[in-house]
Fold this protein.
Amino acid sequence: MSLLRMALLFVRNVFRNRGELTLENLALRQQLAVLHSKKKRPRVRQVDRIFWVWLSRLWSNWRSALIVVQPETVVRWHKQGFKLYWRWKSRPKGLGRPKVEIEIRKLIRRMCRENPSWGAPRVHSELILLGYEVSETTVDKYMIRGRKPPSQTWRTFLDNHLPDTVGIDFFTMPTATFRILFTFIVLRHDRRSVVHFNVTEHPTAEWAAQQMIEAFPDNEVPRFSIRDRDRIYGHVFQTRVMNMGIEEVVCSPRSPWQNPYAERVIGSIKSECLQHVIILNERHLKRILCSYFEYYHHSRTHLSLDRNAPVQREVEHRGRGKVVAIPMVGGLHQHYRRAA
């Protein structure tokens, strides 16, 4: 820079007002910050654009201090900001149809799951009778689309055939001398009651078939029997059950959930009783199970039985006396009742 030009700049700065000089210094410092960034090529960030748009509105000579970018670039930034501002200013507020309450949406889906044969008019009618103001179009929008024709669920099938269905299954228990005992149970689905059980060390198809006869000595045999694909249910067992007039429902391979009630009662037997004792022999296991099933049928509550026992317990009100505990299953569980 020549000496004459430096002198002219000095004279100009002397006679300029203090406010304009401050703005120029601010502009130059901001550009120095951009140039001193670690990247080889200075990159203008969003905050830098906002700074120059703001400075161009406050200072008329902002172009004289601009070095990093062209003045046209700052003008373009300003136009872009103007568009964004009015886009935000003109955004729609509260337009469109009102949202459907989440309670109604959940209820529509629940009705679809529980009643797969229902269409939108049937669900809409039920909602009207329940006091919900909603259109049939809205009901159709939130319905669950199932396969056609609709098929009942396993839960619906079991509920419809509970009184006529039993579940059978084996479970094993080691003894103190490491012998394996096999326990066979027959469970009625309607009241979750174990109608028969027996223990053996050497189960066979003939032995299992005999247990079915002992479980239903009278003519009151169930219509369906659910079992897994264990080889113990051989030809002799299948023939005996068929002659009794029982139709077998065989579970899919590796699908214990298709015989849920039998699996559940076996889990309860193990977790609430057998895991807390050491079995000595076959006779000892039978005695322990007899004690547990006495508790299971007359005392243990079930959520699926409206929080009552298989042999329904009477509700005892406060006026009948204080609460006393009766030990059961060797003290593993307590039966509570009011003392008269």
